[in-house]
Design goal:
The complex is a heterodimer. By secondary structure, chain A is an alpha+beta fold. Chain A contains 3 helices and 12 strands, in the order H-E-E-E-E-E-E-E-H-E-E-E-E-H-E. Chain A has a single domain, classed as L,D-transpeptidase catalytic domain-like (Beta Barrel). Helix content of chain A is 14%, strand content 28%. In chain A, strands 1, 2, 3, 4, 5, 7, 8, 9, 11 and 12 form a 10-stranded mixed β-sheet that branches. A two-stranded parallel sheet of chain A has the order 6-10. In chain A, a hairpin with a 4-residue loop joins strand 3 and strand 4. The longest helix of chain A is centred in the N-terminal third of the chain and has 12 residues. The N terminus of chain A is likely disordered. Chain B is 12% helix and 32% strand. The radius of gyration of chain B is 15 Å and the shape is globular. The N terminus of chain B is likely disordered. Classes of the chains: A alpha+beta, B mainly beta. Chains A and B meet through helix 2 of A and strand 1, helix 1 and helix 2 of B.
């Protein structure tokens, strides 16, 4: 069974990702922990605490403009240079849905469409099977597509999930942050996904 | 005023007979449907196409025991029997027995043999779910 999941994971990631830690679903069109019945404005931001968007000291050899995602820290760093980075709080994949690798941003979308998975439809049969982008959409205000994978950096309509591990492998930011990152990040940007913090 | 389908509960009352009859029968809604939603009119064509593509996971609407249809309302996983109600404003509503235009109602914007479009009356619910497109599954 584990081998089958590994095969599916390999299929989904199209060879662009170094490895998935345990398993990955065949299709990741949304995160199962997401809820449709929520609205989060494009301006939603975190006002305080570690997950507030902020410039931090960050020692790295990656060139300015590179995105480094630290899954265990629940932070996304946009490298600024001079040992500084713009740090965003993120939500990450739940146990078994975390992965690492190096990809590039291949596509950017404002207010992306959303497709609930069958198991979510089973629990909430009143959901539309497809939802065009908008404020009630769990993928939030923006999406940045990671390489040829099914994973994305995207917004959320559930800001309280930042700092948690609830997704199916995507990385979520509050809408205000994902809009900020979207505007700073051109297609082709290198994205490094790490599972363990650097010492 | 929900019309729950609990097994041992007494039969639910019919949709409010005091509401004016709708210009068409609830039979128009019976069947299997691909369902999708949109918020901006420009997204309607591609949402209709998306709904059509969702027939692999159809939403099935059956006729209810009291001349309504068995459907869900927003944020409630329990199916209910809903009826059609004609409003004084000329609009057709789909919802529980009671005055047309209740906050739990949907207003039906468009009906054809192959498709119907409805949105929730409640502004907040409408914002969250958008306008729902139902495209009939099966041969045209």
């Amino acid at each position: 069974m584990k081998a089958m999941w590994a095969l599916l994971a390999a299929f989904c990631l199209v060879g662009a990702v170094a490895r998935a830690d345990e398993a990955a679903p065949k299709v990741i069109t949304l995160d199962d922990g997401d809820q449709l019945g929520r609205v989060s404005a494009e301006q939603t931001e975190i006002d305080d605490g570690p997950y507030k968007r902020q410039v931090v000291f960050y020692r790295t050899n990656y060139s300015p403009g590179t995105i480094v995602i630290s899954t265990k820290e629940r932070f996304l760093y946009l490298v600024l240079g001079n040992h500084r980075a713009l740090r965003y709080g993120i939500g990450v994949g739940r146990q078994g849905f975390q992965w690492s690798g190096m990809v590039t941003i291949t596509r950017k979308t404002a207010w992306p469409d959303w497709t609930p998975p069958p198991e979510m439809i089973k629990r909430q049969p009143y959901l539309p099977r497809f939802m065009a982008g908008g404020p009630g959409n769990p993928l939030g205000a923006r999406a940045l597509y990671l390489g040829a994978t099914v994973y994305r950096i995207h917004g959320t309509n559930a800001p309280e999930t930042i700092g948690t591990a609830v997704s199916s492998g995507c990385f979520r930011l509050v809408n205000g942050d994902v809009v900020d990152l979207f505007d700073r990040t051109p297609i082709g940007t290198k994205v490094v996904i790490r599972q363990a913090p650097e010492l | 005023m929900s019309l729950g389908l609990g097994g041992s509960k007494p039969a639910a009352p019919a949709p409010d007979v005091s509401a004016a009859p709708a210009p068409y029968s609830v039979d128009r809604f019976v069947g299997a449907w691909g369902v999708a939603s949109y918020r901006l009119d420009k997204d309607r064509p591609r949402t209709e196409a998306a709904a059509r593509a969702q027939c692999k996971l159809p939403y099935v609407i059956k006729r209810g025991p009291t001349d309504g249809v068995i459907m869900h309302v927003a944020d409630d996983s329990t199916p209910h029997e809903l009826g059609l109600k004609a409003g004084d404003d000329g609009k057709v509503y789909l919802g529980f027995a009671g005055p047309p235009g209740d906050t739990q109602d949907r207003v039906v914007n468009f009906v054809s043999d192959r498709e119907f479009i409805a949105r929730y009356v409640d502004p907040d619910t409408n914002t969250r779910y958008g306008t729902m497109v139902y495209v009939r599954c099966g041969k045209a």
